[in-house]
Amino acid sequence: MTAVDTASVSAPPPPPTRRRIPRWALPVIVVAIGVGVLAITATLTGQIQLTSSGTIQAAVGLMLPILFAGLGGVWSERAGVINIGLEGMMILGTWGTAWAGIYGGPWAALVGGIVFGALGGLVHAVATVTFGVNHIVSGVAITLLGMGVTQYLSTLIFLPLSDNPRQSPRIEGFDTFSVQPLADGLAVLEQQQRVLLSDAAGLLGGLVSGLTALAVLGFALVPISWFVLWHTRWGLRLRSCGENPVAAESLGVHVFTYKYIAVIVSGGLAGLGGAALTLNVGYYLEGQTGGRGYIGLAAMIFGNWRPSGLLAGSALFGFVDGVQLRAGGEAVHALLYAATLLAAIVALLWVAHRRWKPAIVAAVVGVVVYLVYYVVDTVPREFAAYAPQLVTLLVLAVASQRLRPPAAIGMEYRRGEGD
User: Fold this and answer.
1) 37, 142, 165 from 391: Cα distances, Å
2) Residue 245 maps to which CATH number?
3) Is residue 80 part of a domain?
4) Are 227 and 64 in contact (CB under 8 A)?
5) Of the four listed, 66, 163, 286, 291, which is most buried by Cβ atoms within 10 Å?
6) Between vectors from CA 149 to CA 392 and to CA 301, what angle results, nearest 5°?
């Protein structure tokens, strides 16, 4: 036997290849687990509002401003420009929506919100891209500028119309519609109160009933942004500006132009989020955004600077906000039970992968959350109102372990740096 034959005989067999879950199946599994956890929680705690169609309709309305702001963050930061000024651009969008909506109806209001938000994005682009101002400083300045400008304009424009400089007259919103006959069929199934089946019907029914054109636009912009940024040459060039602008310029990419476009689009999307807020309540009110621009930024980070992950993050925040508005502290208290179940599932998954340390951490977190649920009978309404912000902090703490921001994000760039 030759040396080659001996080596081939003694060589160990290759390790078996582990089958990976198809990429399309992972979101389906996550959604199925979420529906199951909510159904079990609603059944055992008696909080049927957790899976009602009314709660989901409220959650959709509440998630839209966060979704639009987060999409704006994706566009800007994928081009390398940190946009902490999303809150200020949303503020400008709320005022622009009311001003245009008074004279032109809901579609004009939508355009007004986009234009005023885009103006805030333009100011941010001039400061950061052209003059090299620190991105964080510029973003904070945009927020302060948005607050000051809208206060001045409200006093100038709205005071003669409504006798209140902090609030605009009422404006017309979009009509609602439902996907029929699916919505009616799901409503009948929800009323039958069958475990899991009625819960799933309530969750799905809330997504196909009480819709507006703004909701359709919000859900459509997620795949559109994903396709443009990840599946077109133009999107590849824009993302290259956030990864390595020197290399991009050496290949003929006009880095400044792409950064300007990205930040202006970012401002327009944030203004669209402001429009969603104003049209939802029917008028502009000072302080209306309530920090949702920052929550949108957190949702974007949770989604790892990707539209699909952003959609999941904004849906989570919108759902928690909808639950506390619809059912108050008792429903938020029931969410602690749901969090316990999720922690147990996560711990079991880590055990299956033989990752003992994260499994122990998940188990300990689950025990602590359950103890809080067991000891406390209800969550005070004053505390429940801050549930979305608390979820933001918890989600960012968990998601921070797997984040991968664009490589050149926040870096000052000047033409010809690579020469």
Assistant:
1) 17, 26, 34
2) 1.10.3470
3) yes
4) no
5) 66
6) 20
